[in-house]
Write a structure and sequence with these properties.
Length: 455
């Protein structure tokens, strides 16, 4: 069933194009009793009523294909006399002129439709002269076939909300009389289905207003078809399968489900890019879902559980991949992945900043040609020797200087301090000159160029 087939039928439901020949129905109260019956020549209705009924008919061809509009197929047994398909064919061929046939149809709906309040059953008959179309969709005057069908709508009837109103007879404002209002269709169907611009007597177009509660009892008991899940139900089922496979870790389940959603969405986009609008949709078979899970990076133990449940739920009827896509989940997953990437970038920047701070500790050494090492003494090698040195001290100083120059030939000043003094070293401008400042406590000694001295 294609969307454009539905639109072709729906766009005819206008004042100047509608060709409904007859409209029948009945009004049923909450006790399942028929209050009144309708039998009208549709085109003879008063204009206001005409448009109201036409709007109801339009609603049964509205919504999303696969979610609000489902293609249901009849089992072979239903073709035989007494079967649901056989009865619908007979009703269509009678053009709604057989009263007993209509009564049987009403009773079938009343007995099987699960609804507690009042409701209205409407049945329309139509014959659509399907015009031939060229490849560019231009209509020709030739007729391909006459598509004869019936359209049924079941509408809830509820009391209007209590309100104040003007009571003309009494010339006052008072509580208005609450009327029974016919609402939009809760469900409906079109038989036979209109597939590829032609009648398909082996299927029916089923409409449900609420995709979360499509009334499977109506599909099975009234139409005689196997019930089918809406896209909303399939999406919820798939969500439950993934969450049950992951377990109680809700955050992990949401993350994995988001990854799967993105992979399915990408697969649908690729399929659409390689095919035209008339091609079959991408159905997720057991093999397809295995590839999807692998590409999504799902752990093996979780994959096994998902595949098992998926086969049990969808094995016989693989769902359309688009029906499983939840755009809100995909958007949330993209945002979550974006935040994770940002967190990693922040962590990397913090690590670089920490390294930079560590390097800043050594920066004064670079500016002053300062090298700090763990040692037990402080030695300063300078071109100017202290005046207080003795001859023996001078020799020791020369030996020390030679050693220091060999280990650090590129420095003019070499400083060795105890580990606890490292943090106290700083560079400072004194009398316009850059100096190395090392605080000395009263009980501390210094060794300058091999000469021990008190400062």
């Amino acid at each position: 069933m294609r969307k454009k087939d539905i639109l072709e039928l729906k766009k005819r439901l206008k004042k100047n194009e509608c060709t409904f020949t007859k409209m029948c129905g009945c009004y049923v109260n909450s006790e399942k009793n028929i209050i009144l019956k309708l039998n009208e020549t549709f085109l003879n209705l008063e204009e206001e009523e005409f448009f109201k009924y036409l709007e109801i008919a339009k609603k049964t061809l509205s919504g999303t294909v696969g979610n609000n509009l489902l293609e249901l197929n009849f089992p072979l047994d239903e073709e035989k006399e007494g079967g649901r398909q056989y009865s619908l064919m007979s009703l269509k061929m009678s053009q709604l002129k057989d009263e007993s046939m209509l009564d049987s149809f009403y009773k079938l709906i009343i007995d099987n439709y699960e609804y507690a309040g009042n409701f209205l059953i409407l049945v329309f008959h139509d014959a659509y002269d399907v015009m031939t179309k060229t490849t560019d969709n231009a209509k020709l005057d030739e007729s391909e076939e006459v598509y004869e069908y019936i359209l049924c709508a079941v509408c809830p009837v509820t009391l209007a909300k209590p309100a104040l109103g003007y009571i003309e007879d009494e010339n006052r404002i008072g509580a208005r009389i609450r009327d029974w209002i016919v609402g939009s269709p809760d469900l409906g169907f079109t038989f036979p289905a209109f597939i590829d611009r032609s009648a398909d007597i082996d299927s029916v177009i089923y409409y449900t207003k609420n995709a979360k509660d499509p009334h499977p009892e109506f599909m099975e008991e009234v139409l005689g078809c196997s019930s089918k899940k809406t896209a909303t139900e399939q999406k919820e089922t798939f969500h439950a399968i993934v969450h049950e496979a992951v377990g109680n870790d809700e955050e992990k389940a949401e993350h994995l489900f988001g990854e799967i959603q993105e992979t399915i969405s990408n697969a649908v986009d690729e399929h659409s890019a390689m095919s035209d609008d008339d091609n079959e949709p991408l159905n997720l078979t057991n093999d397809n879902i295995q590839d999807i899970l692998a590409e999504s990076g799902i752990p093996e133990e979780v994959t096994t559980k998902i595949q098992k449940s998926y086969t049990e739920e969808f094995g016989d009827t693989p769902p359309n991949a688009e029906h499983l896509i939840d755009k809100k989940v995909i958007a949330a997953n993209k945002q979550r992945n974006k935040e994770i990437r940002l967190q990693k970038k922040v962590a990397a920047l913090e690590e670089e900043l920490q390294k930079s701070k560590q390097n800043d500790v050594l920066e004064p050494e670079k500016e002053s040609a300062l090298e700090v090492e763990n040692d037990s003494t402080v030695e300063i090698n300078s071109d100017s020797a202290l005046d207080q040195t003795s001859d023996s001290e001078t020799e020791s100083m020369e030996d020390s200087t030679t050693t220091e120059e060999s280990t650090a030939p590129n420095y003019d000043v070499v400083v060795h301090v105890k580990p606890e003094k490292v943090d106290q070293i700083k560079s400072q401008i004194i009398d316009g000159k850059k100096c190395i400042v090392i605080p000395i406590d009263d009980n501390e000694q210094a060794n300058v160029n091999g000469v021990s001295t008190s400062l």
